[in-house]
Amino acid sequence: MPDEVFIYYLKKHSIPYKAFYICTQDRSVVQIQPEAALGEEIQEYLDNQQAIDSLQSLTRQLKIR
């Protein structure tokens, strides 16, 4: 029970973030920018795949009915 109370407290008092820190020590801008762009493209691809998978799952469920 204490874990549920703690999790509830954290969720209730969480504040959305607008940015987060990524350690880039000893890396140049020339290295960081393409890596960041690649990371964004990968995340977009994964988000799109998740949406496609969800849509396909929903379609299968509707066909079963």
Which spans have pLDDT < 50 for at least 5 consecutive residues?
A: none
| N to C succession of SSEs | HH
The termini sit apart by 39 Å
Count of alpha and pi helical runs: 2
Q: Which whole number gives the mean pLDDT?
A: 86
Q: How many separate structural domains?
A: 1
Count the E strands: 0
Helical residue percent band: over 70%
Q: Which class of secondary structure composition applies to the elements?
A: mainly alpha
User: Mind summarizing the main beta sheet?
Assistant: none
Rg over CA atoms: 20 Å
- Beta-strand percent range: under 5%
- Tell me, briefly, the overall form: flat
Question: Could you describe the 3D structure shown?
Answer:
The chain has 65 residues and is mainly alpha-helical. It has one domain (2-64). The protein is 72% helix and 0% strand. It is flat, with a radius of gyration of 20 Å.
In short:
72% of the residues lie in helices and 0% in strands. By secondary structure, it is mostly helical.
Give structural attributes:
2 helices; flat; 65 residues; mainly alpha; single chain
Task: Explain the layout of strands and helices.
Elements: H1 2-12, H2 29-64
